[in-house]
Specification:
459 residues, alpha/beta, Urease, subunit C, domain 1, TIM Barrel, five-stranded antiparallel beta sheet, five-stranded parallel beta sheet, 15 helices, 18 strands, 38% helix, globular
Length: 459
Amino acid sequence: MTATTLFAESALLPGGWARDVLFEIAGDGSLAAVTPDAAGGDLARYAHRAAGPVLPGMPNLHSHAFQRAMAGLTERAGGAGEDSFWTWRRVLYDFVGRLTPGQVEAIAAQLYVEMLKAGYTAVGEFHYLHHNADGRPYADPAEMSERIVRAARATGIGLTLLPVLYACGGFGGRPAGPGQRRFLHDLDGFLALVCGLIERHGRDPQLRVGIAPHSLRAVTPELLAGAVAGLAGIDAAAPVHIHVAEQTEEVEECIAWSGQRPVEWLLDHAPVGAHWCLVHATHMTEAETGRLAASGAVAGLCPTTEANLGDGLFPAREYLRRGGAIGIGSDSHVSVSPVEELRWLEYGQRLVHRRRNLLAGSGAALYRAALVGGAWALGRPVGKLAAGCRADLVVLDAERPTLVGKSGDTLLDALVFAGNDNLVRDVMVGGRWLVEDGHHVAEHAVLARYRAALAELTA
């Protein structure tokens, strides 16, 4: 269903909460006009009426879609009881080795339905599963990337596709292991992949292509510089995402290799700026924290995954105090809920500092910060309800007990911090209603394909 107008009694606009808002939606799925105080106009009388308060859809800036099928399968300690990120990664490599393109598409589509129903309307897919199980490219080197595109189109979610450059098994160009063979590219092959994807999809307003040098462990300085320069020659404003400083062992190995910590090295040797997203950046000194905040880059935070993997806590209080930009992602998808990411971002700091309301001062301000930073990291006009932006919005169910009697920022505070029910009623992306009364338009067919893929994987 495509709407041309939508009337909302209450909506969160860039300038704050507004009453009696009329949204006019262009044929390309963007917002042609947003008019508050429109209750008296004829257009308001005939518009489709939102069933509750309207929010901008939340961008999810960091996803590894296939990992949705792993959620819950790695929660038992090994024989020695010494599980860590690194032991989890061995399980990941075994799982990756069995995935087919059709299974990847089915898993991604199920994940994207869940994201949409939770209020995420755009996703950054940090996509590193490129090749066949033996490491050889498919006949179409973009086969796996195209499966992600197909899943996004089938479900309607907005997509920033971030093909990953992965070439090494450790700092200093150590050789990759057999578990990583499906990820590997040289620079020329990688840039050819990116160019081809941009040529195929560059005119689609629902899709943006950037790049993701995987990490300082997985690319040499020369490869990082070549990939960034190559992308700049194609699209100077395209997003660049990179994992950095997620684990203390990673920090120690980086110091042993370079004499510097990962964030410090990256800020000194790469053109980190407003089009960059540093994912995790968990372990930083005070100096690194200040420099990253001042760089204009977005810190991509994934609190539920970072907790699940035992990563540690990002220095969010100091980073935000210095004006740093943040966005949220569901990463490994042990949780697919923007509310839970925001809640645990704040709660982690409360536990460390033993104080309350530490980040941005309220749930509402934290939600706004994630909208702004997430949209910037994805390189698409999303995250706000304004003319020229995508018509991506979420309608809350104000009749649910958690929200009864609440309005404005108090409503957002309750959304983030009160209860565990999903309070999303309807979701529009690019002018299309994809979720109505809590149900995605294609959820049954998508779930059937997901069930079939999981049956194959577990047979």
